[in-house]
Design brief:
single chain; ATPase_NBD; Hydantoinase_A; 5-oxoprolinase
């Protein structure tokens, strides 16, 4: 085929352990789709090299590609590993200590020795300038830039590499911030700069300041990475546009992402969850619990009526002992825990077994990889239990080092005073319990019954644990997508060009004119920005949500605003919808006045989104897919003889019942006894759980 006859799409996703690739080629004439996937090791700190490696390993020519999307962990890695730039902060007089004061929301509240997280900018690099806006955007005191040259001179002398600008109430009126940016550009044009209004237009001064500082902190690192990736792809012959996966489940242009790279802080998980939402739409399951189990972490999110929840209440490094750091950018609403295939099992001083959050990572990795790992991990436990085929480890590309596995698990079993088999079974059960608790946080804890949802599992470990988790939660069924090991990369191909606009503007809940004006203003701004990317105004889809609360309360909930002219009837319906949303979230409603806090505008446009087509049925027999049988320890159901299937020989229409193991080169699907398996029209494995 020539390039004219086909449409070729490539997506890559850089994870903590592996870099994934998905390649789709669609014949324009027949509609037939060719799918190829590949994995290679992630290559820190030069992550772009891992992307180029996996492309070459797959034998692809990027010169023939029509679309290229990319997701990466480079931003979150720079933050958690403290490998960003030295930042200087310019703020309003009297507000240099906002980062130090932070919030009183420490999780370890009764710990008298508690220490707040250390700010990313030391106090001597937090400088003030006069001038002030009020919360409605009115100038209270004029901006005075006379001291800015001396501030910048001090920053330069102290080796500052990026400047963050966050002035009080700039969300309501960014005029002062824009003036500061212009002056910095004139006095010190080579320094990286970012202002709060470029990232967020929501109130809460601590969160805005933290977000601006963290964005400046990662900006030079992320810009260099994206520029090296772009240059590497161009050297390989790619001439199209490079799209970068965002944390809001959409892709954005390279230019826009380089300006504000903090928006891709959770780009990898976001693409997987968007892929789960699109998969749910395709198979007729709009309510989905999505779970991504990788080598280091497990992440989950709830999708209702085909919609992924996007919030700006996102924190990094928040745990039982630390309040963490807020990042007020649109991020898919998720829960993340330190449990994955590489999670290390360990015994505490009270002889209690734990799994994670420490991970063996890619190097040395689980003991089975034979790279020097000496700690038992979830992967090692699954090997010992027969859930993973030791003779088909990593699709046969790696010889499992069972001597190292036995050594690691025997050492752990000795500490517990149990057999190796019991220790391995305990690792799997504890890992499953940790992940069930995470899934409950996004479902039961928010008023949703898991029995109304389908569990979609992906990542290298999702299929191995999905059925056990689904049985515990009581979900309708478990779906393992075709290409589950690289599903996050697949999700990028299903994504639209998307930007989320959050704007705070306080008004009465019945202020029809004010709401209409605000929606029109931000929608117009969104279309203007998309126009700069070459997207016609009529191609931009606008979806408004209104942030509402009961008067005098602190936090708001989002209520969708239907299309059409705003009249009194629609305002009354909006308020009634608010009561329903609020009651579902908090279990009660009040008979008091309602306020509008602001709006959330979702603006999107299609950029070559992939459309799935049914897989062909060749008439192959199920018996031809059977590889053999082996004893498998299902942890909760004991040891059973399972039929082993070759995933590559399964096709739509095939049905069978567990106990079974389905072996794919990138993952293993563990089917518990009594569960019915059905391969659907698109090649996904749907597992109907026993009652």
């Amino acid at each position: 085929m020539t390039k004219r006859d086909t449409i070729s799409r490539i997506a890559t996703d850089v994870g903590g352990t592996f870099t994934d690739l998905v390649y789709f080629e669609t014949d324009k004439t027949t509609g037939r789709q060719t799918v190829r996937t590949e994995k290679s090791d992630t290559t820190p700190p030069n992550f772009e090299q891992g992307v180029l490696n996996v492309i070459r390993k797959a034998g692809l020519s990027v010169a023939e590609a029509d679309f290229f999307a990319h997701g990466t962990t480079v931003v979150i890695n720079a933050l958690t590993e403290r490998k960003g730039a030295k930042v200087g902060l310019v703020t309003t007089t009297g507000f240099r200590d906002v980062l130090e004061i932070a919030r009183g929301n420490r999780p370890d509240f009764f710990n008298l020795s508690y220490e707040k997280p250390t700010p990313f900018v030391e106090r001597y690099l937090r400088q003030e300038i006069p001038g002030r806006m009020d919360y409605r955007g009115n100038e209270v005191a004029p901006l005075d830039l006379s001291g800015l040259p001396a501030i910048l001179e001090g920053f330069r002398a102290d080796g500052v590499q990026a400047v963050a600008v966050c002035l009080i109430h700039a969300y309501a009126n960014p005029t002062h911030e824009k003036a500061v940016l212009d002056e910095i550009g004139r006095l010190w044009p080579e320094v990286a700069t970012v202002a709060s209004h470029q990232i967020t237009r929501e109130w809460r001064e601590y969160e805005r300041t933290s977000t601006t500082v963290l964005s400046a902190y990662v900006q030079p690192t992320a810009q260099r990475y994206l520029e090296r990736l772009e240059a590497g792809l161009q050297q390989e012959g790619y001439e199209g546009r490079l799209y970068i996966m965002q944390s809001n489940c959409g892709v954005d242009s390279l230019t826009s992402t380089k300006a504000i790279p903090i928006t891709m802080v959770e780009s990898g998980p976001a693409s997987g969850f968007w892929g789960a939402a699109e998969l749910g739409r395709i198979i007729g399951e709009p309510n989905v619990l999505a779970l991504d189990i990788g080598g280091t972490t497990a992440k989950c999110s709830l999708i209702q009526n085909g919609q992924v929840s996007i919030k700006t209440d996102y924190w990094i490094e928040r745990d039982r002992k630390s309040a963490g750091y807020p990042i007020m950018v649109p991020v898919v609403d998720l829960v993340e825990i330190g449990n994955g295939g590489g999670s290390i099992a360990w015994v505490d001083d009270f002889s209690k077994l734990h799994v994670g959050p420490q991970s063996a990572g890619a190097v040395p990795g689980p003991a089975a990889y034979g790279r020097g790992g000496t700690n038992a991990t979830t992967t090692d436990a699954n090997l010992v239990l027969g859930r993973i085929n030791r003779d088909y480890f990593c699709g046969g590309s790696v010889i499992a080092d069972m001597a190292s596995v036995d050594g690691a698990l025997d050492a752990l079993a000795d500490k517990l005073g149990v057999s190796q088999q019991e220790a391995a079974r305990g690792i799997v059960r504890i890992a499953n319990a940790n992940m069930v608790n995470a899934l409950k946080l996004v479902s039961l804890n928010r008023g949703h019954d898991p029995r109304d949802f389908t569990l979609v599992v992906f990542g290298g470990g999702g299929a191995m644990h999905g059925v056990a988790l689904g049985q515990e939660l009581g979900v309708k069924k478990v779906v393992v997508p075709r290409g589950a090991p690289v599903f996050s990369a697949w999700g990028m191909m299903m994504s639209d060009l998307r930007r989320d606009y959050f704007v705070t503007r306080l008004m009465d809940g019945t202020d029809r004119a004010g709401l209409e004006a605000l929606v029109g203003e931000i929608s117009g701004h969104a279309r203007e920005q998309f126009g700069k990317e070459g997207v016609a105004a009529d191609a931009v889809n606008i979806q408004p949500l209104v942030k509402m609360r009961y008067r005098n309360q602190e936090h708001a909930v989002e209520v969708p605003l239907d299309a059409g002219p705003l009249d009194d009837t629609r305002i009354a319906a909006l308020i009634e919808d608010f009561h329903g949303v609020y009651e579902r979230e908090y279990t009660y409603r009040l008979d008091v006045a309602v306020e509008i806090v602001g709006i959330h505008i979702i603006a999107s446009a299609e950029v070559g989104k992939l459309e799935m087509v049914p897989q062909p049925r060749t008439g192959a027999r199920l018996e031809d897919a059977i590889k053999g049988r082996r004893e498998v320890d299902y942890a909760t159901e004991g040891v059973c003889e399972a039929i082993i299937y070759n995933a590559e020989k399964l096709e739509p229409g095939m049905v069978f019942t567990g106990p079974a193991i389905i072996e794919d080169p990138g993952t293993t699907i563990v089917v518990h006894p009594g569960n019915r398996v059905e391969i659907d029209d698109f090649g996904n494995t749907q597992i109907h759980l026993r009652s």
